[in-house]
Structures are given as structure tokens and as C-alpha cells.
Structure to design on (587 residues):
């Protein structure tokens, strides 16, 4: 580009800038004029000056101007027309300023200082020291491992046994047991040509004894919690326990009168809720005028509770009622009870059910729960003209006619409610004290064991019976004091539970051992256990003592799950009991 062209281009740019400045000035003047023309205060001042300097003229002369020359005539005052000032809103124009958008870029950096150098040096020195320490540890470990290898190699070289040492080993009981066992297995294997399912079966049961010696309480049961109420259960004996079929978490317990105080209710029944672990008080509290000797949930009425009393009355409570007292009760009469009622059980179906009760006066009554004024039927329990003082009662599984009675004289009796031989039909003699517990086998399976039942007594023993035989099949005699209760497991065919007044409770498994219990535990604080019960699902055991406390334990799955082998083993065990009894009779 030449110099002249560059000069011309600069002059063109200067002219263009000059034109832009003039346009900007004109725009500014127009805005100033518009602002001055729209200034109301200035307009008002000019109007006032015009009115004050000129005389009032006739509005017709001023408004009727026909030509521009007439505006120059002198205004004439008029007394008839008055002038008024009208204010009109001014137009406001706002021009927004031009917005300039700017950006800034900043980069943050760390300037090195002298301190960083010192820190890095310290870190290097620390890492070097750690590396040296690690190497020293490795060297020490190598030396230790070499020493251990040398010691083990030296110890592996043993001297040959002397003749005395060999003879001592051969004559030891441990070697004799091992040699007898292995030689028996080898002989079985050599002699048996056909395949045998259980060729290593041990009939001496020594393996089971060793396993039993290693079993701990925590492997069988686990303590859950304790139920006790200072106001309602203190100084009272737990007389009966039951659980609800409709609500398995609910536990019903009846209590005797307070042994330390004569005030308050004589009989108390409490419902505890095991679902809420931190709830210290019972879910429901019921009472009556007489000490409660037995209690039960109604199988077909989820809100009804039944209790037998020491006075012979039977009381009915309803959880739907706001009252703690019974909503119904029986009356003393010739047909009903007048002595303590120790046995209650609801039998039948949903549409046809009855409450069966027995008392120590030797009477059995059948009641309609909805009408308790008088019994539907009454049976005198006598055997060979002798009244039977019933302490316990049980019905075999799926049975509503035949029943079993545990009496005060130590015998068990079998009878029926209906038929030609209504009443007591046979007896089972074996105990030397009152029968304190009675439980029928109630586990359904491929093999029928419904004829089996257990009894406990003050003679320190528990006996196993069959309805088909008059003598007991087996007697369990490991307790050192009164056995107060016994209860079959509701889910396992060979397991049952016992308790005594020393605070001891035992869990038995007949398939495991018939001479010693699977578990034997004694409670602390010198308490006497009076009642024991399995929950309906077999997952818990409930114990009641003489201080008004309920002890709850969770049961291991091994005591809950059963299979066909358990039924077969129980059948074999019963056959062993019968053979042993036959051998004893021959001797």
C-alpha cells in the first residue's frame, strides 16, 4: 500500500468518526428537548406567568381565531368564563445503557518455598529409616525360621521305643478301645459279601457319649429373657402356662395367691408379649377372688381365656373387655366342681367344641363356653368304687372321647366320656407319689405314637407309658428331688422336657440316650421350677418358678427339625425298652 492510499484511508476514517460524533450530538439534543418539553413543572410555571401578566380575555375571542393574525390581538377580559389547567401524564422514555460483557482468566499456582525442601528431605529420611527397619525384620524372621526348621528336624528324629514303653502302650485302655473297634470293622468288611448301608455303626454308643461330653448348653438352647412384674407376680407361684394358637407371641401364665401379703387379688393371670423385648410389663392383667390353679387359651375363640380356681369355680376372661374381672364364671352345685380344678382343656372343632375340666373331688365336667351357668354333662371319676382325685388331664392327639387322668394317689387312669363304659376303664400303676405332670405324644408322622404318654411325680421319676400296656415302658430316674412337670415336644417325636423343685430342667432325646438327658441345666438364685412348656412351633421352652418368674429359652434347630429316621429310631428304641423289661421280668 502506498503512502497516499494510507493517508486517504486515515482521512476517510477521521471523516467517518466526525459524522458519528455529530449524529450522537443531535441525538443528545433531541433527548434534551424532549425532556424539557415534558417537564411539567416548567410548563406550569410558564402558564402561571402568562396568566399573571396578561388580562383575562374572553374565551370566545381566544378560541375563535380564524387566521394567524387574530392571535396578535389584545386579549379581552371576561367575567363569565373561568380558565382551568388540565394536567396530562407525560410520556417517559427509558433507554437502557449498552451492557459491556468482559471476561477474566486467572490461573492459580503454588510458589515453591524453602519449607517444602525441608519437608521433602524429612520424608526421604523417614522412608529410608522405614526401609532399613523392614529389612532388619526380614533378616530376623529368616533366622527364626531357620532355627525352627533345625529344631523340628532334630526333634523329628526320635529314639526307638523300648520294650517297656511298647508294652505300656499295648496295655493302655485307649489302644485297647481303638484295636477292638477297628478289628470289628475289618471283620465286618471281610465277612460281609453284600453291601451294607451302615457297616460302621457303633452299638456301644461311645461315640455319642463323647459327642455328648463336648456339647455345650449354647449349642442346644439360648436364654432369651425373663418375665416378672413386681406388682402382680412377686411372691406368687406360677401354677400354669399356655400359649396362643392365634398369636404365638402371647404367653398366658396363672399365679397363686401372694404368700407375703394378704391384700390384693388372690388369683392373678397375666398375658406376656414376647414380640416386644424391651416391654417390662404384661400385655393384659386379669384377676379373680380365688387362687388360679390352671389356665388355657381357647382354641376356637382368640379373645377368650379360661381359668380353673382353687375354690372349684371356672372363670372366663375376655381381652375385648375393659374389666380385669371375669366376664363369666360357674356356680358351685352338685353337678359342678367344689374342689380345686387342676385340669382344663378345650376340645372339638370350630363349630362344635367344649371345655373339659377335672377336679380333685373326682369329677369331670363338660361346658359350653358361651353358657357357663351349669355343665352340659358331669361324670364321676371312680375306679372300682374309689374316687379318683384328678391332678392332671390330657387327651391323646385327635381324640375327644378318650382321656387320661393323673391322680393324687400316683396312678394314671384311662377313660372315656361316652359309650357303654363312660368313666374310668383302666389304671396304670407305677408312681409312689402324686402325679404332677402328664403329657401325651402329639407329633403326627408315618408311624403312629399316639398311645404314648409321659408322667412325672413326687417320687423323683418320670415314666414312659403306652395305653396298650399296663406297665411303664421305661423309667427316667436322674432327678434328686420332686419332679414337677413333663411335656412332649410338639414337633419332634423323641424329645421331651422335664423340671423339678431344685431349679433343674432337662431336655431328653430318646433316640440319643435313654439313660441320661441331652441337656441338664440348673437355674441360679435357688429357685424351684413348677411348670415347663414347649411353644406350639417347638422353637421355645417356657419355665415357671416359685418366685413368679417366667424363663424363656430359644431352642436350636436340631431339636426342631425331624425326619423319617427319627420315627424309625424311636420305634427301635421302644422295642429295646420292651426287650429290657422282658429280661428284667425273667430275672
Amino acid at each position: 500500500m502506498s503512502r497516499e492510499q494510507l493517508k486517504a484511508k486515515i482521512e476517510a476514517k477521521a471523516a467517518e468518526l466526525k459524522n458519528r460524533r455529530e449524529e450522537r450530538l443531535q441525538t443528545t439534543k433531541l433527548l434534551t428537548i424532549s425532556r424539557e418539553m415534558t417537564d411539567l413543572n416548567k410548563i406550569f410555571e410558564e402558564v402561571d406567568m402568562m396568566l399573571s401578566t396578561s388580562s383575562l380575555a374572553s374565551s370566545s375571542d381566544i378560541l375563535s381565531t380564524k387566521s394567524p393574525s387574530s392571535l396578535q390581538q389584545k386579549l379581552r377580559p371576561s367575567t363569565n368564563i373561568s380558565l382551568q389547567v388540565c394536567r396530562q401524564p407525560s410520556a417517559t422514555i427509558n433507554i437502557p445503557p449498552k451492557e459491556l460483557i468482559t471476561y477474566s482468566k486467572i490461573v492459580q499456582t503454588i510458589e515453591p518455598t524453602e519449607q517444602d525442601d525441608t519437608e521433602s528431605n524429612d520424608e526421604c529420611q523417614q522412608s529410608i529409616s522405614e526401609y532399613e527397619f523392614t529389612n532388619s525384620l526380614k533378616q530376623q524372621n529368616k533366622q527364626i525360621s531357620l532355627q525352627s526348621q533345625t529344631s523340628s528336624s532334630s526333634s523329628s528324629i526320635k529314639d526307638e521305643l523300648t520294650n517297656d514303653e511298647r508294652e505300656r502302650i499295648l496295655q493302655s485302655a485307649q489302644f485297647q478301645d481303638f484295636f477292638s473297634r477297628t478289628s470289628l470293622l475289618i471283620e465286618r468288611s471281610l465277612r460281609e459279601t453284600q453291601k451294607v448301608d451302615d457297616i460302621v455303626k457303633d452299638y456301644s454308643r461311645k461315640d455319642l457319649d463323647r459327642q455328648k461330653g463336648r456339647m455345650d448348653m449354647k449349642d442346644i438352647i439360648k436364654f432369651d429373657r425373663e418375665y416378672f412384674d413386681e406388682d402382680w407376680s412377686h411372691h406368687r407361684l406360677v401354677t400354669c402356662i399356655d400359649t396362643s394358637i392365634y398369636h404365638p407371641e402371647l404367653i398366658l401364665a396363672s399365679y397363686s395367691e401372694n404368700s407375703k401379703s394378704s391384700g390384693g387379688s388372690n388369683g392373678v393371670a397375666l398375658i406376656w408379649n414376647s414380640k416386644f423385648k424391651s416391654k417390662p410389663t404384661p400385655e393384659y392383667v386379669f384377676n379373680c377372688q380365688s387362687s388360679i390353679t390352671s389356665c388355657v387359651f381357647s382354641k376356637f375363640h382368640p379373645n377368650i381365656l379360661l381359668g380353673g380356681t382353687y375354690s372349684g369355680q371356672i372363670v372366663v376372661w375376655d381381652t375385648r373387655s375393659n374389666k380385669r374381672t371375669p366376664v363369666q364364671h360357674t356356680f358351685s352345685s352338685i353337678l359342678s366342681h367344689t374342689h380345686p380344678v387342676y385340669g382344663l382343656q378345650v376340645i372339638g372343632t370350630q363349630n362344635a367344641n367344649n371345655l373339659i375340666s377335672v377336679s380333685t373331688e373326682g369329677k369331670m365336667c363338660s361346658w359350653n363356653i358361651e353358657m357357663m351357668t351349669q355343665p352340659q354333662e358331669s361324670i364321676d371319676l371312680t375306679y372300682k368304687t374309689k374316687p379318683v382325685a384328678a391332678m392332671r388331664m390330657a387327651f391323646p392327639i385327635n381324640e375327644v372321647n378318650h382321656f387320661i387322668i393323673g391322680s393324687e394317689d400316683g396312678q394314671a387312669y384311662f377313660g372315656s366320656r361316652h359309650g357303654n363304659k363312660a368313666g374310668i376303664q383302666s389304671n396304670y400303676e407305677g408312681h409312689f407319689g402324686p402325679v404332677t405332670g402328664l403329657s401325651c405324644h402329639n407329633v403326627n408322622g408315618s408311624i403312629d405314637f399316639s398311645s404314648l404318654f409321659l408322667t412325672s411325680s413326687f417320687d423323683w421319676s418320670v415314666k414312659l407309658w403306652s395305653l396298650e400296656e399296663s406297665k411303664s415302658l421305661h423309667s427316667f430316674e436322674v432327678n434328686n428331688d420332686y419332679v414337677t412337670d413333663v411335656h412332649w415336644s410338639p414337633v419332634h417325636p423323641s424329645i421331651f422336657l422335664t423340671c423339678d423343685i431344685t431349679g433343674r430342667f432337662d431336655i431328653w432325646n430318646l433316640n440319643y440316650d435313654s439313660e441320661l438327658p441331652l441337656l441338664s441345666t440348673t437355674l441360679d438364685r435357688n429357685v424351684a421350677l413348677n411348670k415347663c412348656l414347649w411353644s406350639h412351633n417347638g422353637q421355645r421352652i417356657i419355665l415357671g418358678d416359685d418366685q413368679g418368674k417366667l424363663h424363656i429359652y430359644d431352642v436350636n434347630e436340631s431339636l426342631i427339625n425331624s425326619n423319617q429316621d427319627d420315627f424309625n429310631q424311636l420305634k427301635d428304641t421302644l422295642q429295646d425298652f420292651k426287650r429290657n423289661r422282658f429280661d428284667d421280668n425273667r430275672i
Summary: The first helix runs from residue 3 to 37. Residues 284 and 322 are 10 Å apart (CA to CA). The chain has a mean pLDDT of 81.
